[in-house]
Amino acid sequence: MAMGKLATIKRAVLELTSTFNTSDPYTLCELLEIEWRKVSLPGHVRGLYIPVRMHNKRYVLIHKDIVPSWQRFVCAHELGHHVLHGDLMKGTHIDTFTISSTKDHTEFEANAFATFLLMVDQHLQFPFPLDAVASASQKKDSRELAQILRDRTAEYC
């Protein structure tokens, strides 16, 4: 993924968080009228973003049996699908394969969105260096992005 695409995703996150004055993915879903629920999902499925065009509704489903920090990441990831990919999505899910997949750019972009969103500080600034995210993205390794997020979150909370 080019630095330009990451910069575009970062701008989308900063625009969203400054518009709504929050970086909490659950609150953002509510403000964007996206219904979210923690539910039982098949073992490998961590979350789903489901736009229902006929009823103009959107849903984020999060696996209730994963740890809360992953639930938050999954919610942010699915919100990323909404913001970045709009209603072109047809119920894409994040699972143990797609979280590390290099084949689907939409999954990687949603992971980058989630990483940026969860790193925005209380002043709605992004203190994490773009080059570190770019470095991980050049390897197309979503697990590295998630690890960066987990390792560095404590520094900014």
TrEMBL record:
PANTHER family: ANTITOXIN HIGA1 (PTHR43236), BLL7220 PROTEIN (PTHR43236:SF1). It comes from Alicyclobacillus acidocaldarius subsp. acidocaldarius (strain ATCC 27009 / DSM 446 / BCRC 14685 / JCM 5260 / KCTC 1825 / NBRC 15652 / NCIMB 11725 / NRRL B-14509 / 104-IA) (Bacillus acidocaldarius). It comes from the Bacteria. This is IrrE N-terminal-like domain-containing protein. Residues 53-122 form the IrrE N-terminal-like domain. Coiled coil: none annotated. InterPro entries: IrrE_HExxH, Rad_response_metalloprotease. It holds the Pfam family Peptidase_M78.
